[in-house]
Amino acid sequence: MGSKYETVIGLEVHVQLATRTKIFCGCSTKFGADPNTQVCPVCLGLPGSLPVLNKRAFEYAIKVALALECDIQGTVKFDRKNYYYPDLPKNYQISQFDMPIAYNGRVVLTSGDGERAIGITRAHMEEDAGKLLHDQDPASSFIDLNRTGTPLLEIVSEPDMRSPSEAYEYLKILKQTIKYLDVSDCNMEEGSLRCDANISLRTKGSKALGSKVEIKNLNSFKAVRDALLYEQERQEDLLEEGGAVKQETRLWDENNAVTLSMRSKEEAQDYRYFPEPDLVPFEVGREVVERIRSELPELPSAKKSRFIECYGLDAGDAELLVSERPVACFFEAVLEECDDVRSVLNWIKGEVLKHLKEHQAGLDALKLTPSGLASIITMTASGKISGLAAKEVLKDHLVSGRLPSEIVKEKGLEQVSDTAELDAVAARVIEDNPKSAGDYRSGKKNALSFLIGQVMRETKGKANPKLAGEILSKKLSE
Amino acid sequence: MKDIFKSIEAYRLWEKEEPRSPEDKASFIADRIDVSDRDLNAFITLDREAFSRKAKAAFSPERRKSPLGGVPVAVKSNICVEGELTTCASRMLEGFRPPYNATVIEKLDHEGAFVISGANMDEFAFGSSCETSAYGPSRNPWDEDRIPGGSSGGSAVAVSSGQVVCALGSDTGGSIRQPASLCGVVGFKPTYGRVSRYGLIAFASSLDQIGPLARNVTDCATLLKAISGYDEKDSTSVNIEVPDYCASLGMDIKGMKVGMPSEYFQEGIDGDVQERLREAVKALEELGAEILEVSLPHTRYAVSCYYIIGPAEASSNLGRYDGVHYGYRDEEARDMIDMYVRSRTEGFGDEAKRRIILGTYALSSGYYEAYYLKALKVRTCIAEDFRKAFEVCDAIVTPTSPTTAFRIGEKSNDPLKMYLSDIFTIPANLAGIPAVSIPCGLGDNGMPVGMQLMAAPFAEEKLIRIAHAFERNTGFHELKPGTIED
Fold it and tell me: What is the CATH number of the domain that holds A463?
């Protein structure tokens, strides 16, 4: 921002931890089931029911905490956050108040000039609420409690971000990191990652924070950036006109691309937090933390540096490969069987990612194998199949999972490198295209590519184009 | 009414002498309760359908091999029994039938006990007289103009009047022991964590504990053994092996050290209660116990501390009764907030509202430190007092209640006076220690007096040992209300 103001942004991110069962009961967390089919007395908050902590949820939280370089709380303690809302059957949410499971971490941004660390204030575990359905009946609302009790990790950043694009990058890296850990889908559409943004402006050089606005209803990373950009401008205009920013919560209206006032801070609720008496605090064993630490995968930033160093990739390519863990792993797996880094990189960057996009799926959803791609690359390099045929083989292989060599054989894609056969085709092509042949002979050398194309067509792509070129030029100069 | 249910032993004898088909037995028991309950109101409703449904399983001959097989056990209406009305004596849970069983009910079913749900109580266990029940007060069988104590009043009345052999109650600040004392029966509050709370509708989660009531220590020990034990569904239950409580029966108490806390024998206790206690202590001494003085200096803060922590937790626990998901809902409400307000205004009684407001206040921002946090600190001091005391003694003896049963209506307009009924029982809940109340004679008005014994966490066996020795040698448990024939 080229103005006299500095923007200060902090983000609160809720991540659903992808445990099989809920945080305090044995109900399934599967998304998309019929309403109220994944419930029991505990998550329904029926009188007399009691919560029992899901160990896996706790371990997932520790995993994220370690990946974000957080300190881990010595004791796990839960608190009750009391408020009334129909999607919260107990009218209190089991959360963590004064002793979050993790605190004091960081996320390192790399896209600007050099690295910039964004502090993580805290991350705490809590239970998700249900969903209200307002579109079922004109007179009443319905409640689906399937989501109630899904484990959440709320990750609160320091107000360290200075622009909407930094907020965007922070979210991108956070999501990437958590996905690497395989503890959440981080899918904003399905609500497994949700974000509220806090933004305020202050005069450059000032240490004090301005009045902050919290923005809710942000349904994509883009929405986060757009809403922050809008709000940054709105606040700047207000301040420029000599007005003051009101501390309040605002909703992002995606359709009209504006933020709207929701409630002011004076109406803020008193949540009456107190220690959850139904869950006994317990010590976090050092050995548990160390075991989880030892199980952490290589994280994106480390992987990127290693790719640059070990494979001589440039930063952009390395970044692209590590952006999703399965892709990075696939890259290295292909290299186990084929040492042509360039080709592997180009195939993944080009064809593989193109198909992923087309199928709108992750690598695991396709039948593509590392040895499959390796053999396609090897066959191309040796001239057994043409580049064009290679693409066709890949397309078949990633859907069918058949061996590329089988596909080549069955579809008859092997390149024709038989001189006699090509000789005959070349002769026919020259005869059929006298004009191009004449052009070539009269010095228009690029007429050759047209003729090569014709040979390829005649052989249904099977001809080795390099060989075809040689034969044609030899014949034309005879 | 004939005293055929005075003990499990007596019940077995009756079974043998008057054999009946399971159905007949069920309706015999139901009729017996019905007749006496017109005066006593020990049960909110008697689910006759459940009686006949459960009769066959509970009264089958092979069940008799189990100590509790076929034994009628009344269950307080805040313990969930699948498919049977569990209302906490509140309009708020009118018609509420839990879709699941509390762990203690599962255990009783496993033992083959004949579970009778719906024993009357103070609404959501808020009270010491059973008068806050939305379904009318239970009455003391010794004098129907008097209260039976509370909150487990219905359970105590059902046992004391001989309607059932034994009962389950819940004790948050004395809710088992005080009515047991006032109705002349034995009531046992186990160590916090000894019995699963899963399915106990919470009042104050860090204080609540389910426990048995019976006419004698032996039956209490039998029932306690049946319901105790770690439950993975209750994170606050403790994974310590359950000893055979019945093995402590019949042992002598020679050389056991019983502490008398000076703080509990001061002003505020009726003269006749003091007198009975003095005699009881003497009896213990004659049985070979060594009586020594101990000090529990923080006891004087127990009631104040309890009336912060209890209501604070209750205000949160009762938040769920909002008319949205189950229970009472005002159908006239205009909108969501109106529905909350009307449903809670109409569904809760005065005492429940009083506690909710008290607890909400204590947890409010700006007051939390001054009240709730301070109360937690005091609680630690109280527990520490006990810990020190139990370094020198095996048990502590006190009156259970400072008075005998008072008249219905006598204290209902004076909450503070009512709250002081639990002055001797509250500390055990705050400290999480086990305590038992056993009959030790009658007051000047002919109403029962109870003696309380407390012990260190998980020292239930010591309590059973002392209580049983006392009972065996004094015979006070043989005293019974005039309505019961021999």
Answer: 1.10.10.410
A268 interface with B at CB cutoff 8 Å: no
The per-residue pLDDT for B23 is 94
Residues of chain A neighbouring B168 (CB-CB closer than 8 A): none
The answer, for A242 touching chain B at a CB cutoff of 8 Å, is: no
pLDDT in tens, B167-190: 999 999 999 999 999 999 999 999
On whether both A217 and A327 belong to a single domain, the answer is: no
Annotated catalytic residue: which of B7, B36, B129, B151? B151
A36 touches chain B (CB under 8 A): no
Residues A95 and A242 in one domain: yes
Euclidean distance between CA atoms A169 and A171, whole angstroms: 5
Shared domain check, A245 and A96: yes
Do A407 and A428 have their domain in common?
Answer: no
Measure CB to CB from residue B233 to each of A44, A50, A277 and give the nearest one.
A50
Determine the structural domain holding residue A472 and report its residue range: 419-476
Domain shared by A95 and A123, yes or no: yes
Query: Which pTM value belongs to this model?
Result: 0.91
Share of chain B above pLDDT 70, in %: 100
Q: Measured over all CA atoms, what is the biggest interatomic distance in chain B, rounded to whole angstroms?
A: 69
| Residue-averaged pLDDT of chain B | 96
Q: Using one digit for the tens of pLDDT, what is the confidence trace for A433-443? A: 888 888 888 88
Q: Token pair of B55, please?
A: 């009769």
Model ipTM value: 0.96
- How many residue contacts between A and B have a Cβ separation below 8 Å? 97
The token pair at A99 is: 């002793």
pLDDT of A267 > 70? The answer is no
Span B200-220, pLDDT tens digits: 999 999 999 999 999 999 999
* Domain final residue pick, A374, A393, A411: A411
Together in a domain, A269 and A319: no
Taking CA–CA distances from A274, the nearest residue in chain B reads B363
Residue A339 pLDDT grade (very low, low, confident, very high; cuts 50, 70, 90): confident
Question: By the 8 A CB rule, do B334 and B404 touch?
Answer: no
Domains contained in chain B, CATH given: 8-249+433-478 (3.90.1300.10)
Based on the residue annotation, tell me whether B225 is a catalytic residue of this protein: no
